[in-house]
Amino acid sequence: MPSTGTPYDWAWVDVAVPGAPGRLPGVSMAGFRQRSPALWDITMVAYPFVTVFVDLSDEEAVVYDAHGRSRRGSVVAGLLPGDFRAAGRRVECLQIRLEPVAAAAVFGAPAELSGTVVPLQDVWGRDAGRAEDRLRAAASWDERFAIARDLLGRRLDARPPVDPEVAHVWRRTLASRGRVRVDGVADEVGWSRKRLWSRFRSQLGITPKRAAQLVRFDHAAHLLAAGHCAAGVAAESGYADQSHLNREIKAFAGLTPTAVAEAPWLAIDDVAWPASAPVSSPARHP
């Protein structure tokens, strides 16, 4: 995808968020409608969720690019999708973030999604088109959120959940912001390190260590976006030093700490995804 668009300006975007009632565990949503006709492009910063982008645009479809391959319409981005960009004009999109445990229940094979971006119909099946039509025809964002909760809830109820031990380790990893020891959490659930590694990876598509690194990076990225200095972020997030933080940011985002702090992808998080904002961070409003 050529980077010919203008920098993303959130002032031209209406953001809708659902109310608390009816929330599904491990699932969050937000709706976006761009009012500017200008062509834009935005780069995604890796974070510890599988993401569904449902394209509800009436005009040009959103164009996604990952690994040098372009796709149009609705897609699912697995964990660590690599260099992932999106572009379009007058876009309307429902974005659904699923924790890996929820994604495993919804899609059944998150390991196959890791590191990839695929059309929604490839993982949702023949019902993907009907779901898009229902969401597009809805009269309001509240109705769209209700439809999405219903569709996802049916899948969550119909598919077997991941092992409770795997779910526990994921929750511990998220709650600790990635500062967990694999041996320690394996002991907590009564598994060997080898068994935990194998089951976690087969069910969530990522190793426990890599999951911890991703969660820690996500926390650090949000602190940087909230205006904290890199040295302080390194210390608060559990990195050995600022050089260690710089290497992790380069590995996950291909960016410098300064570029992550200014990334448009993170600039709207306190509005669209308030639960992802780090504790004690100053509010940022684009």
Automatic annotation (TrEMBL):
Q: Which superkingdom, per the lineage?
A: Bacteria
Which InterPro entries does the record match to this protein?
A: AraC_XylS_family_regulators, Homeodomain-like_sf, HTH_AraC
Keyword field: DNA-binding, Transcription, Transcription regulation
Q: Which residues form a coiled coil?
A: none
What PROSITE patterns does its record include? HTH_ARAC_FAMILY_2
Q: Which Pfam families match?
A: HTH_18 (PF12833)
Q: For this protein, what is any one GO molecular function term? A: DNA-binding transcription factor activity
Q: Where are the transmembrane segments?
A: none
Name of the protein in its database record: Helix-turn-helix domain-containing protein
* Domain (HTH araC/xylS-type): residue spans on this chain: 164-263
Keyword DNA-binding listed: yes
**What species is given as this protein's source?**
Microbispora rosea
